Amino acid sequence: MIPVNEPLLDGNEKQYLLECIETGWISSEGPFVKQFEERFAERVERRHGIAVSNGTAALDAAIEALGIGPGDEVIMPAFTIISCIGQIVRAGAKPVLVDSDPVTWNMDVSQIEAKVTPRTKAVMAVHIYGLPVDMDPVLAIARRHGLKVLEDAAQMHGQTYKGRPCGSLGDVGTFSFYPNKHITTGEGGMIVADDDRLAEVCRSLRNLCFQPGKRFVHERLGWNLRMTNMQAALGLAQLERLDEFVGRKRAMGARYNTLLNGLAGAQLPLPRTDYAENIYWVYGLVLDDALALDAEEAMRRLAAKGVGCRPFFWPMHEQPVLQQMGLFKGERYPVAERLARRGFYLPSGLALQPAQQDQVAAALKEVLHG
Ligand SMILES: *Cc1c(COP(=O)(O)O)cnc(C)c1O
Asked: Is 53 touching ligand 1 by the criterion CB < 6 Å?
């Protein structure tokens, strides 16, 4: 079976991890955490990096730190992972959805401004699958209406928008280090920001809002979202290779593009826009409506041929858990709905070999046209 993802851990990971064990520093108090935060923030051109336990936790803390609460509205894409919406809903705020662009699969920024109301507090931009959201229009709308901008850059380590690092464009950026991301810590995440106060609030929320002087007296409810020294050790070793990893992903994407060039019945990822070159976090496909099989059936047949695939996201307005809460009644986002049903991605991990890509492409051609 060719797995959908396999990470590369053959740099300094082992050495740094051993250092944790030999020094006894395994908790979040260890020195790698601060080093990883500083290097990561530097890489993203941000003043502050706050390492947390995962990318979902980074989003939760960022939403809380932006002060989003009851009655507030947050504009976000319909087509994204559930992690983006959890804390908005739990905080009693209202998620306001925007449909996707059918070509880039990112939120259609031309639909944002019509969704702004006097209650809108923030826009959450989620960079999807390898190409960033067109951020300049988002930032302009935010300026005009006094909105905060949160960037979910979980899939965008090393990607830039018009030459500026993803994660550095809004008020706050979040990353994940799950093993299918460009760099991994097993489980892990990072919040990045320039504003000292916002960063301080995130740091405090991460650590149960313990107070410096009166440790067990709390003015605010936080979480334990701390990253361990062992995770940060992995992160530091991975970060050293980020450029190499981005290069590998781009080569992987280019090879699939060549192998699948002219393939009838499927839309391939857009290699570039005028603001970015695709970094192929995953190599996605969207099957044409004319094709008899949908993504689910195509993935089943590919699995039978030893090719591990994953479906695209399922849109927020079609999530049973959110519908049961009475959210999004009667709302339709046709592009997101279609991406969910017709889209899936091929094996795209960093350890994927060219010969495996050849096998994947051959299997895909048989499944679609065999
Ligand atoms: C992976 C991912 C997350 C969640 O990160 P975890 O570390 O798995 O919690 C959030 N947003 C996006 C866009 C992601 O791809």
From this structure: no
Question: Would you tell me how many other CB atoms lie within 10 Å of the CB of residue 18?
Answer: 11
Residue of 65, 51, 63 lying closest to 197 (CA atoms)? 65
Contact between residue 145 and residue 121 where contact means Cβ atoms under 8 Å apart: no
pTM over 0.90, yes/no: yes
Q: Residue 50: phi, psi to the nearest 5?
A: -125, 105
Span 201-218, pLDDT tens digits = 999 999 999 998 999 999
Distance 231 CA to ligand 1 centre (A): 16
Domain ranges in the chain are: 13-239, 242-369
Residue with tokens 């701390």: 226
Residue 365 CA, ligand 1 centroid: distance in Å: 31
Q: Is the pLDDT of residue 253 over 90?
A: yes
Q: Which atom of ligand 1 is nearest to the CA of 176?
A: 7
Q: Does ligand 1 have an atom closer than 6 angstroms to the CB of 155?
A: yes
Q: Which CATH superfamily is domain 242-369 in?
A: Aspartate Aminotransferase, domain 1 (3.90.1150.10)
189 lines ligand 1 (CB under 6 A): yes
Is the C-beta atom of 5 inside 6 A of ligand 1? no
Confidence at 370, pLDDT banded by 50, 70, 90:
confident
Q: Per DSSP, which regions of the chain are E strands? A: 48-52, 73-77, 94-98, 120-126, 148-152, 160-161, 164-165, 172-176, 189-193, 266-267, 283-287, 310-311, 343-346
Q: How many CA atoms lie within 13 A of 63 on its CB side?
A: 30
Asked if 125 and 151 touch (Cβ cutoff 8 Å), the reply is yes
Give domain 13-239's CATH architecture.
3-Layer(aba) Sandwich (3.40)
